[in-house]
Amino acid sequence: VQLQASGGGLVQAGGSLRLSCVASGRTFSNSVLGWFRQAPGKEREFVATISWSSGSTSYADSVKGRFTISRDKNMVFLQMNSLKFEDTAVYYCGARRIGVLRYDVWGQGTLVTVSS
Fold it and tell me: How confident is the prediction for the chain on average, in pLDDT?
């Protein structure tokens, strides 16, 4: 069971990035896939989630209207627009089974740096 995130990089404020997460090793049809982030000196925080089967999504208030989570085949994407300096963080993708609160699979994180 594996998740592998990619797509991070350096971008100017106001710019865009698209993160990708490849899922493998088990079927995720009964799972929720999520993006989380951790800024230096801060705890990991929720960014967005998507139900693999229904496609329903949820977002943190801080990214609503700017970020879009989507899925296709075995991949989950996070389209990030209008990036702000405070979006700078290591972004992680994670997976949990529907009905279970704890995320039991995590990708290795990809660094997003937004210059002001």
Answer: 95
